[in-house]
Write a structure and sequence with these properties.
Layout lengths: L14 E6 L6 E7 L5 H17 L2 H17 L1 H12 L3 H24 L2 E4 L10 E9 L2 E5 L7 H12 L3 E5 L5 H13 L7 E3 L4 H9 L3 E7 L2 H11 L3 E5 L4 E5 L5 H13 L9 E7 L3 H13 L19 H16 L3 E4 L3 E2 L2 E2 L2 E4 L6 H4 L6 E7 L2 H8 L7 E5 L3 H10 L4 E4 L25 H7 L1 E9 L7
Parallel strand pairs: 5-6, 5-8, 6-7, 8-9, 10-11, 10-17, 11-16, 15-16, 17-18
Antiparallel strand pairs: 1-2, 3-4, 4-19, 12-15, 13-14
Helix pairs in contact: 2-4, 2-6, 3-4, 3-6, 4-5, 5-15, 9-10
């Protein structure tokens, strides 16, 4: 299949929507879109896919995923350039995403062969000495996967890889802002041998998504996106499994015994990688009072060295935000924070979809930039007086994905790991670290399920117990 061809099992509508380059504004593609009237057709295709997927051996699933990973690796530069043109990531960041997607599919192939269940020791219970058996992991059936714009290849791979490994069919609804990367990934899976009916791609509005989510045939919804949409999905879904990554507002604590140079470098990267459009992006940095000024001055100086501009230029550090409207809205939020007393240390300049990395201090805790996920290259610096205060500030937000702490004290680091309310605690690293094999998900409000290949596969399958009651000697 050519890079420009649509995969066979895309639901085709009579209308199309343009896909625009966030940096240049030019239209790079037009994709067919459907409305809620297409739901019956989509579900019919998915039912056929469910039967095909369930009949595939584990070896066949693994082979498809391994072959797809190899094909993407061969075409890595083409995939990276598509990510740049569609999502606005810098070319360096896009290449890293492609490498991660290759790893995600390779990990999925391994889980297809490995995560099969285990023996149950029935005879460990008195009265069950004559019994033996096991449990297997069986596919749920049809999984609806709804993906965001910010990692248009790897986050799709995180839905499709484990679902295919587990023997499921998938209805994929990619972000309307970045559907082409998802379509190319599905095309590669089909080229690698995946029966085309196993993945049905739907481009459309909220109405078609709601119809799919509510369908009884859909046994699980895997969603990455915002809280408002997540809440709407949970209301519409009915009795089915939900796995949701709904964002974060990541805190990082910098203790006075930390390596400040390392902490500054790591936190600048964690705050401004992918223009801050990342659910584990470092947003609130809490710094011990006696090193606050040193950290602040070094952090601001390093931030000012970042180059904002053309994402295809290898020297660019920060590319555009996903739309001009997103950049303008970010500036409005920062302006509102400044009007409430926050101090702007650098940034807050807009040029089309480009938004310069922005550092604030003295942000009131009632301000939206303190309380909510900004999803932009904006970071807040806040001093603290004691370790206990730092933990309280870090945990003050109602939802959480990752947190971090920089310290040279192992005891302090492990205490923080115990006390921080987060799905992942990064020690001597920023919040913005994720390895695709680790469990990944929220810890407080909106926490439903886990991604990370092995853990996603377990969410996307269900145990089936087989128990054999052997006759006793006298009954033979």
């Amino acid at each position: 299949m050519s890079d420009t061809a649509l995969p066979p099992n895309i639901e085709l509508g009579t209308d199309t929507v343009p896909v625009n380059n966030p940096y240049t504004g030019e239209t790079i593609a037009s994709v067919p879109t459907v409305d809620a009237t297409a739901a019956d057709s989509v579900l019919q295709q998915a039912r056929a896919g469910r039967r095909t997927a369930a009949a595939l051996s584990r070896a066949a699933r693994a082979s498809v995923l391994e072959r797809a990973a190899h094909l993407i690796e061969e075409r890595a530069e083409s995939f990276a350039r598509l990510i740049v043109s569609e999502a606005g990531k810098t070319i360096t960041q896009a290449r890293k995403e492609v490498a991660r997607a290759v790893n995600t599919l390779s990990l999925s192939a391994g889980e297809a062969r490995r995560n099969a269940g285990e023996v149950i020791p029935f005879n460990s219970y008195e009265g069950s000495e004559s019994r033996q058996g096991w449990f297997t992991r069986e596919p749920l059936g049809i999984i609806a996967a709804i993906t965001p714009f910010n990692d248009p290849v790897n986050l799709v791979a995180h839905k499709l890889g484990p679902a295919i490994a587990g023997g499921n069919a998938i209805i994929l609804k990619p972000s309307a802002l970045t559907p082409v990367s998802a379509l190319r990934l599905v095309g590669v899976l089909i080229e690698a041998g995946l029966p085309e009916e196993i993945v049905t791609v739907v481009n459309g509005d909220a109405d078609i998504a709601a119809a799919i989510v509510a369908a009884p045939d859909v046994r699980m919804v895997s969603f990455t996106g915002g809280f408002a949409t997540g809440e709407a999905i949970s209301r519409a879904a009915g009795l089915k499994k939900l796995a949701m990554d709904l964002g974060g507002n990541a805190p990082v604590i910098v203790m006075d015994d930390a390596d400040l140079d390392e902490a500054v470098a790591s936190c600048v990267s964690g705050a401004f990688w992918t223009a801050g459009q990342n659910c584990i992006s470092t947003q609130r940095i809490l710094i011990a009072r006696n090193v606050y000024e040193r950290f602040r001055d070094a952090f601001v100086a390093r931030t000012k060295l970042l180059r904002t501009g053309d994402p295809l230029d290898d020297s660019t550090d920060v590319g555009p935000m996903i739309t001009r409207e997103a950049a303008a809205a970010t500036r409005a939020k920062v302006d509102a924070a400044v009007s409430q007393g926050a101090v702007l240390l650098c940034g807050n300049e807009v040029d089309g979809s480009l938004y310069t990395p922005t550092v604030l201090e003295d942000v009131p805790e009632a301000c939206s930039i303190w309380q909510e996920e900004v999803f932009a290259p904006v970071v807040v610096l806040q001093p603290f007086e004691s370790f206990e205060e730092a933990i309280a500030l870090a945990n003050a937000i109602d939802y959480s994905l990752h947190a971090g702490i920089f310290t040279s004290s192992l005891d302090r680091a492990l205490t923080a790991a115990d006390l921080l309310e987060a799905g992942g605690v990064m020690i001597n690293d920023s919040s913005d670290y994720r390895f695709d094999a680790m469990p990944f998900g929220g810890f407080k409000y909106g926490s439903m399920g886990r991604e990370g290949v092995r853990f996603a596969l377990e969410e996307m399958t269900q145990p089936k117990v087989v128990c054999i009651n052997r006759p006793t000697e006298g009954a033979r």
